[in-house]
Predict the 3D structure of the following.
Amino acid sequence: MSELLANPLVWLIAASEIGFWVLLGAGLLARYALRLRRTSTVLLLLVPVLDLVLIGASLVDVAGGSPPGQVHGLAAVYLGGTVAFGHSLIRWADGWAAHRFGGAPRPGRKPKYGAERAAYEWREWAKVALLTGIAVAVMLLIAGVGGTGVPPLPQWGFDPMWNWAFRAGVVTLIWFAAGPVWATLFPSRDDRERTDADR
C-alpha cells in the first residue's frame, strides 16, 4: 500500500477526482447563482481535460520505463468510470441545481416497476460495461506503449495491472445478473398485481 501511495499517479488520480467535483460545483454555481452560462459551459467542458491529463501521464510514465502496474490499472478503471458515468452525474447534479436554484421541476426518480425499471437497469448496466471496455482499451494502450504485451486471460487476476480488468469484469457480470436480468425476469409484486388486474 505504501508503494502505491508513493506513486505520483495515485495522487494525480485523487486530484482528478477532486477536480471533477470542483469543476462541476463551479460550473453549476456560475450557471445558477451568477447567471454566467458561457462561463459555466467552459467550466463543465474542462472536465474531460482532466481525463486526458491522467491518461497522458500514465502513458508518459510507462514510456519512461515504468512497468505497467497497479496504479496504471487503477488509472484505466478510473478513466472508464468518468467517461461512462461522468455525463449522467453532471446531468443529475444539473437537474437538482436547476430545481433548487432555477425554479425547474424536481428531477424524476428512477422507476421502481415494470418495463421502465428494466430499461433503466439495462441503461445503467451498459454504463458499467462501457467502463470495463474503456478500461481494457486503455490497458491495451498502456501495455503497447510499455512493450509488455497482454497476459493470457486466465492470468489477468494475478497480473498487477490486468487484475483491475479482471475485477471490473467480475463487477460487470454481477451487476448484469443483479440488475437488468433480475429486473427483466422477476417483476415486482406491484407489477404482477397490475398484470392480473389487466386480465
